[in-house]
Write a structure and sequence with these properties.
Strand order of the largest sheet: 2-8-7-6-5-3-4
CATH architecture of the largest domain: 3-Layer(aba) Sandwich
Bound molecules: pyridoxal-5'-phosphate
CATH topology of the largest domain: Aspartate Aminotransferase, domain 2
Largest sheet: 7 strands, mixed
Number of helices: 12
Strand content: 5-15%
Oligomer: single chain
CATH superfamily of the largest domain: Type I PLP-dependent aspartate aminotransferase-like (Major domain)
Number of strands: 12
Amino acid sequence: MEHYLDNSATTRICTESESALIDALENYYGNPSSTHKVGRMANEKLRESREIVAKTLSAKPEEIVFTSCGTESDNTAIFAGAELNKRKGRHIISSSVEHDAVLKPLEELEKRGYTVTRLSPDGTGKIPVDSVIEALRDDTALISLMLVNNETGAVTDIKEIAKRVKIKDPNVLIHTDAVQGFKKVPFDVKTCPVDFASFSGHKIHAIKGVGALFVRNGVRIKPFLLGGGQESGRRSGTEALAQIASFAAACQADPQIEKISKIKNYLMDEFKKIPEITYIETEAPHILSISMPGYKSEVLMNFLEMKDIYVSKSSACKQGKRSHILEKIGLKNEVIDGALRVGLSRFNTKDDADALISALKEARKLAHR
Ligand code: PLP
């Protein structure tokens, strides 16, 4: 039996999302820009989907721009946000534990003359609120901080940060990469005064190839893609309606957070009993970063795979490299080298947790032989 515990890399599509996908493929195949009936039907489906996604965030439908993935949403927010506020200044605040979809655009902006302050996390990967406020400068144009860290599950208090920043300087634009936090921890744009927020469909059981960017009303971004003027001129290209409908259905589906939390707590309780295993205690219900210092992640992963158990070696995008996130939070190399990320979803059960626990116990015994 397969035990898929790599849901922070990607998730299996859920039935709600799959049904919506097939329905859109079969019945809403028109181009939403076409003015005939088939086009109008597709356009209506697009409108409905946008409304659903917006509602999940307490946003207005016109504040949602559909994209192809979280990476595109992050890139758009960062480049467009920096461009929009360049008269205010060329200083950006972010952190050293962001995903590459944020770090790489920031590196590019540095090459173009921007200065980036990368805040350091505490021991769990969390960015202290005060450090953001202290880093503010008159020429700060943009802040980009993730809602939930993809490797540790640390939750940034983005609401408090955004509120305090906006009181001090309402002209600073704020972006949050909410790709890992969406539908996992409380987040809405009514109570959290960010200007941009990034989302990705495949992390919440929708099909791959769709994401969204929240852009607050009044924030006028310069588009990346020019063409037919779709998405109110903010992202041209015929809308991927079936993917978008799949994303909307996933937004409506119950993520079963209570169940996921219980499994995470159970894993932590059991790992506490195994002296060779350490883990980082964080607030997100679905991510647990564990380590068996002295054992290599790759070896552990291969061993787990033989038992049909799938986790990842820190972030799935970091093939072969030591995790920059675990390094930044100050873990020793031997802890980082033995690190595994467990990513839970509504499809996981206690059986998956038990399989992982007993396999790691076995791995430990084999190594001691
Ligand atoms: N941001 C975070 C925090 C992520 O974890 C990921 C994917 O792992 C991304 C952005 C990129 O999202 P996507 O895979 O949809 O491009």
